[in-house]
Write a structure and sequence with these properties.
The complex is a heterodimer of chains A (78) and B (497). Chain A has 78 residues and is an alpha+beta fold. Chain A is built from 2 helices and 5 strands, in the order E-E-H-E-E-H-E. Chain A has one domain: Ubiquitin-like (UB roll) (Roll). With 497 residues, chain B is mainly alpha-helical. In chain B, 60% of the residues lie in helices and 2% in strands.
């Protein structure tokens, strides 16, 4: 069951609904948000995914990172 | 026979004592509003401009004849065809947002006409209701003529009957402001905050832009409406003054809440018209400059007059003057097919002007427009490429204002998640969360568009959402006015510094 999340890409003008799989990595989720916002924000190689004010280890899965439905996460420049 | 000066004061005050019902049964608090006070506290209620029904009808008749004359002279399709395309789309925004919102004002005023606490108040509210009928009918009449020319003008009547995301937001606002409101909150929120505070944006600011854009029909229409607004807006002042004597904290709350809610709506309606949909050489001022001169100074003066404080979020609001409507416009451009009017990309001259007017955050906004422009360069212009330069992921919405989560800056969006009775909500800003938290019973059950999609009430696929839920068609959904065919896009570097 996909997990709906509020994603905020640094440099963007609007938050986006991102559907995450609990088994996908934090790095994959960050990439998903970058793709979703690519019309307005140029792609950056070095980014962090921030959740609850903490940069997440990109190798963690969404479930391991503790992200739950309708939570907010941010993708910011590293 | 009594003269006008002799009978009008008698006719204005026709209150009496009740013998077989209690006063609080005739005027229940739930619909008359709080604080509930006996009529003795309201008996000195007085409007500053007094009129009789005969005078009202005579004046309105003359004003209507003047509007008809303007329509006959400059309100035809051939006149509309001469307008600049961006301005034409500003017209479509207001054609949709205005008429049926005014109709909700009829309902609010009629509530005041029955449940207002003094007969002079009730009489003025009756005139207010008749005014709002007029403000519904005039734009419907004038814009109907243009439907044959451009079917997006059909949204003048259709807009509020759809679940288009902007209609959901506007309905959420007007349902609370006017349709479902008690008489006291209605008259403070509508007359004192909305009409005294904000309609200058619509009726002075837009009239001036319309004149600069040679749109004389729209200019005369809003000017005619403004003369009514100026009269019935005065109802709010004596209502507010009486409540201030008994519960100043409640008045401060109402003013803080409604100034913020108005700001959210008008910054979009008027902000994008001034700063994006009017030709750059025809903008007499920026949206921020107009707000500072016509809204902020006047509102602060009104607060001072009644012993009220600035809203607690004042510094935040001043900061938003530089950025909020820019965030919304760029977001809306990239989801333009979800709306009923067309958009333009600001070119080098516009971006130079915007940088001069909004230096604080323009670097971040310029980067967004550069990226959008680059996409057009990559795919090439043409109507067939509209969706290649369009957002695909679902944008998200605030659970209070129902508008996109586009507050803060591109560097730091201010959206915040809040849990209420085990359910998650998200708000675009601290004031929207604060309003929700003060009256959660009023807002908690309303679903924003994202929650409707997630619960299966609205389709999840964009084409179905556009056509089935937002009631748009390929003909009416929003596009780039020029389908990306801008001369300046041919030049590799467009950033105007």
């Amino acid at each position: 069951m996909p997990i709906p999340l509020y994603g905020f890409l640094q440099g963007d003008t609007v938050g986006l609904l991102i559907l995450a799989d609990e088994g996908e990595t934090v790095q994959s989720l960050a990439r998903k948000l970058q793709d979703a916002g690519s019309l307005r924000v140029a792609f950056r190689d070095q980014v962090h995914l921030v959740y609850n004010d903490r940069a997440m280890d990109p190798a963690l899965t969404v479930a391991q990172a503790g992200l739950q439905a309708l939570d907010r996460f941010d993708v910011i420049s590293a | 026979m009594l003269s006008r000066e002799e009978w009008l004061p008698l006719a204005r005050k026709l209150d009496w004592d009740y013998s077989y019902v209690r006063e609080d049964e005739v005027f229940p608090e739930v619909i008359s509003g709080r604080p509930w006070l006996p009529h003795s506290e309201w008996k000195d209620w007085e409007e500053s401009f007094k009129t009789s029904y005969r005078e009202y009808v005579d004046n309105q008749y003359e004003k209507d004849m003047a509007v008809y004359a303007v329509r006959d002279a400059v309100g035809r399709i051939e006149n509309a065809q001469k307008l600049a395309l961006p301005w034409m789309n500003s017209l479509k925004v207001h054609a949709a947002a205005l008429p049926l919102a005014e109709f909700t004002g009829v309902i609010g005023n009629l509530r005041g006409a029955r449940f207002g606490r003094d007969s002079a108040w009730r009489t003025m509210a009756t005139f207010g209701a008749l005014d709002e009928y007029r403000h519904t009918q005039i734009p419907l009449l004038l814009f109907h003529e243009l439907v044959k020319f451009d079917s997006q003008f059909d949204w003048a009547h259709k807009f509020y009957h759809t679940n288009n995301w902007f209609a959901v937001a506007a309905r959420h606002f007007f349902d609370e402001l006017t349709v479902g409101q008690n008489a006291i909150e209605f008259h403070i929120a509508t007359n004192f905050v909305f009409e005294t505070g904000f309609t200058n944006l619509q009726f002075v600011g837009l009239a001036s832009l319309a004149r600069e854009s040679s749109d004389h029909m729209f200019e005369r229409m809003v000017t005619s409406i403004q003369t009514d607004e100026a009269r019935h807006a005065q109802i709010g002042h004596p209502v507010l003054a009486t409540v201030m004597k008994h519960d100043p904290g409640y008045v401060q709350y109402l003013v803080d809440k409604w100034f913020w809610r108005n700001w959210r709506l008008f910054s979009i309606l008027t902000g994008i018209s001034i700063d994006y949909l009017t030709a750059v050489d025809q903008r007499p001022y920026s949206f921020k400059e107009f707000m500072e001169e016509w809204i902020i100074d006047q509102f602060l003066s009104s607060l001072d007059e009644f012993g009220l404080q600035k809203p607690w979020y004042w510094d935040l609001l001043m900061d938003e003057l530089d950025i909020y409507h820019h965030m919304i416009y760029a977001s809306a451009y990239s989801y333009r097919a979800t709306l009923w009017f067309n958009f333009v990309i600001p070119g080098p001259a516009e971006r130079k002007w915007l940088r001069q007017k909004y230096p604080k955050y323009w670097d971040d906004m310029d980067a967004v427009w550069e990226q959008v422009s680059e996409r057009w360069r990559t795919v090439g212009p043409g109507p067939e490429n509209e969706f290649a330069v369009h957002g695909t992921a679902m944008p998200t919405f605030c659970d209070l204002c129902q508008l996109p989560l586009s507050a803060g800056t591109p560097r730091k969006n201010t959206a915040r998640v809040h849990i209420h009775e085990g359910r998650k909500y998200i708000f675009c800003s601290e004031p929207c969360q604060w309003i929700f938290s003060r009256e959660p019973e009023r807002y908690a059950n309303h679903k924003d568009v994202v929650k409707r999609v997630l619960s299966g009430e609205a389709p999840a696929q964009l084409p179905d959402l556009l056509t089935e839920y937002f009631r748009l068609t390929p003909e009416t959904w929003g596009k780039d006015v020029y389908h990306g065919n801008y001369e300046w896009l041919g030049a590799r570097k467009t950033s105007a510094t």
